Amino acid sequence: MGLGLTSMQAQTTTTINFGDASVLTGQFTGTGSSLSFSSSGGLGGGGGVTIASGNSGIQTFNSTIANSGSYVVSAYMFNGTGNSGYGGLGFATASSNTLAGSAPWSPANSIGVTFHGGGGDFTNNSSSASSLTWPPGISDDTWYKYTLTVTAKASNTFDLSLLIQTSDANGFITGTYASKSVTDVVNSSVGAATQLQPYFLYQGTRFTAVDNFSVTASAIPEPSTYAVWGGLVAGAFVLIRRRRRQG
Fold first, then answer.
1. Is the pLDDT of residue 235 over 50?
2. What stretch of H or E contains 213?
3. Which of 30, 133, 217, 233 has the fewest C-beta atoms under 10 angstroms from its C-beta?
């Protein structure tokens, strides 16, 4: 009889495709300028969220994730013809958040990324942790998929990476536009939280639609889980020894 104890990892992915008008109001808590549902404004001509020119706000996903291991938030965002403004993704400690009063616009007690046509910032609370550039800049009237990966490390420290992919109108990835990363971002407010809430933000005239908001949470189980497994293994070895003595 053989026994083994391996490191366990749980992973869950949730994707919101905004297929009907109730999804935005039922799954998100929004502040700032309100968004609109369009039955044909999303990927493939299906349902999606539309952003009126000049509107700014943040939508916080109502579901929480565990603040451990690596976790990912992504969204398709349509870059219109406006040449001013930002989009953004991240994780916050609060269930409702507001934009900062100036760039990079990210909310308090959060970690994430904001992006515009030719660059952006990895964000640490409402400040920039690292500035980003990707000349010559994204194209107008085009869907892009933005993916932020955060890895929680020891001592309130995080690694962040951003992947920008080009997409056709149906959401099929056609290539990689940019890939950026930063290491050892220290954030004590996020580090102290046991759970986080993903969000997307919008500011100015840059982005006009959002679709397929997705969250993947990947975490190593808490110490209590290992204690349970350790107890089971110890009990199994005791049972094996008893059977050998009886034999």
1. no
2. strand 207-219
3. 133
Domain count, the chain: 1
**Rounded to an integer, what distance in angstroms lies between the CA atom of residue 96 and that of residue 224?**
30
In a domain, 2, yes or no: no
For the chain, the average pLDDT equals: 87
Please report which confidence band the pLDDT of residue 156 belongs to, taking 50, 70 and 90 as the band edges: very high
The whole-angstrom separation of Cα 95 and Cα 15 is 19
Which CATH number goes with the domain that contains 171?
2.60.120.200
Token output for 214: 């997705």
In a domain, 1, yes or no: no
Q: What is the mean pLDDT of residues 54-83?
A: 93
- Provide the b/e sequence for 138-150 (b: ≥16 CB within 10 Å): beeebbbbbbbbb
Structural domain that includes position 220: 12-246
Taking the whole predicted model, whether its pTM rises above 0.70 is answered as: yes
Residue 6 lies in a domain: no
Q: Which residues contact 88 (CB under 8 A, 6 or more apart)?
A: 104, 105, 106, 112, 113, 114, 115, 120, 123, 199, 200, 201, 202, 203
C-alpha count within 13 angstroms, C-beta hemisphere, residue 181: 9
Task: Decide: 115 and 137 in contact? Cβ < 8 Å.
Answer: no
pLDDT at position 45: 96
Whether residue 3 is contained in a domain is answered as: no
Integer CA distances (angstroms), 224 to 7, 137, 220, 221, 230, in order = 13, 48, 11, 8, 10
